[in-house]
Amino acid sequence: MMTEFGAEGTRSGSPLLATAVQHPFTDADADLVLRASDSLEFRVYKVILAKASTVFHDMFSLATPRPSTLPKEDAPPFKDGLPVVDVAEDGRTVEMTLRFCYPMEDPELATFEDAERMLEAGMKYDVDIIVTRAKKALAVIAEREALRVFVLGVRLSTRDVGLMAARKSLSQPMWSTEPPFPPDLKYISAVTFCQLLNYRRKCGEAAAALSMECGWIEDASIVVVCSACSPSRTFRYQSGGKLPAAKWYASYMERAAAALRDRPFGQAVLDPYMLEHTLLIASQCSLCGSCALVSLSKLSRKLAEEVEKAVDRVSLELDF
Ligand SMILES: [Zn+2]
């Protein structure tokens, strides 16, 4: 039986492609040969593949013809008396897939390319453990390559991957709209990219709005009012009352709002330079100088938590 499985989409190349088949995929008593797109041949056991993959299970449930029962021109390929199944994936992808299926240590998915190839293979051959591991790896990779992971999620119609990556992209610099453009963008539509940009803008607005709404400051030990340092704005308590806000508080909130519009994630308001600048302003007031350090520490951590909550409430519209 010869079966050709076509790969969908495209894949970035990897410098670590397998060049030789190794144990345990060379076993003499195997009952099937998987032949990769680069001609590497893996001697495997059908029962292991059938248990791990519903696709292989269904394939093997069909009768396998013997070499001598068909006319020569219709005979499927055999190698050393074993049926050969051609797959569209390269040798590295096949080997990693098999390692997940076999009772052996799982391969490490440290690079985007490997996580990508395993997500595709796991989905194509319906192997849950591979899909799960690939998504976990992509969540780590998205910490530094969020746009790339987002594009992959869109390309494979994997909504949870797309949403996860979009969320993680908020901590990364805004993408340049000047050439050279991120190469992965060619795999998604302009509409999808605009949806991502709109999501980021809405997150920025929601996060920055916290600097104007003070209702989330519930801790009475956070002192943010002062009548001695010529404050430029007032602080509105939850009870509705207003008091003059300390100058450092007004400055911090202004800088925090600007930072959040650019990168709406909690850590943005814990920037050491921003905190240091705020304390410098506080030190110029005889009243604020003694209490600003504790208040700012509590305030900034609370704001960071509230930013994450605010961003969580923003939804990303995707067409899949
Ligand atoms: Zn003051």
Q: Would you kindly provide a written description of the structure presented here, covering whatever features stand out?
A:
The protein is of the alpha+beta class. The protein has two domains: 1-138, 2-Layer Sandwich (Potassium Channel Kv1.1, Chain A); 208-312, no CATH class. Helices cover 44% and strands 7% of the residues. α8 packs antiparallel against α11 (292-312) and α9 runs antiparallel to α10. Strands 2-1-4-3 form a four-stranded mixed β-sheet. It has helices spanning 46-52, 54-60, 91-101, 112-124, 128-141, 146-155, 159-169, 190-208, 247-262, 272-282, 292-312; strands at 32-35, 41-44, 78-79, 82-86, 234-236, 242-244. The protein has eleven helices and six strands. The chain is elongated, with a radius of gyration of 28 Å. The structure holds zinc ion. The site of zinc ion has 8 residues, from loops. Zinc ion binds at residues 226, 228-229, 246-247, 285, 287-288.
Q: Which key phrases capture this entry?
A:
7% strand; binds zinc ion; four-stranded mixed beta sheet; alpha+beta; Potassium Channel Kv1.1, Chain A; elongated; 320 residues
Write the layout of secondary structure elements.
Blueprint: E1 32-35, E2 41-44, H1 46-52, H2 54-60, E3 78-79, E4 82-86, H3 91-101, H4 112-124, H5 128-141, H6 146-155, H7 159-169, H8 190-208, E5 234-236, E6 242-244, H9 247-262, H10 272-282, H11 292-312
Parallel strand pairs: 1-4
Antiparallel strand pairs: 1-2, 3-4, 5-6
Helix pairs in contact: 1-2, 3-4, 4-5, 6-7, 8-9, 8-11, 9-10, 10-11
Bound molecules: zinc ion.
